[in-house]
């Protein structure tokens, strides 16, 4: 499933781009969830912390496993955040 991610600096037109893409019948962007940036921030904190990195390693959670889990979760958040469409878009 093709995904479109919109990113940019504040006040740079990213919301306008999201609205324009959302107007296309084959694209669904939906509202911002703000879940994905928080999740990526947590991942960054975990990997920067020696204690958390050790705990993840002891639990068998490699960086690849963590990336796969985050990718699957991100896709679910985007896919279930609105009506089905052939192209999904996210601006968080």
From TrEMBL:
Catalyzes the O-sulfation of tyrosine residues within acidic motifs of polypeptides, using 3'-phosphoadenylyl sulfate (PAPS) as cosubstrate. Belongs to the protein sulfotransferase family. GO terms for molecular function: protein-tyrosine sulfotransferase activity. It is an enzyme of class 2 (transferase). The keyword Oxidoreductase does not apply. Keywords: Transferase. It comes from the Eukaryota. It catalyses: L-tyrosyl-[protein] + 3'-phosphoadenylyl sulfate = O-sulfo-L-tyrosine-[protein] + adenosine 3',5'-bisphosphate + H(+). Its EC number is 2.8.2.20. It holds the Pfam family Sulfotransfer_3. PANTHER family: PROTEIN-TYROSINE SULFOTRANSFERASE, PROTEIN-TYROSINE SULFOTRANSFERASE 2. Signal peptide: none annotated. One of its GO terms (cellular component) is Golgi apparatus. SUPFAM superfamilies: P-loop containing nucleoside triphosphate hydrolases. This is Protein-tyrosine sulfotransferase. It comes from Stegodyphus mimosarum (African social velvet spider).
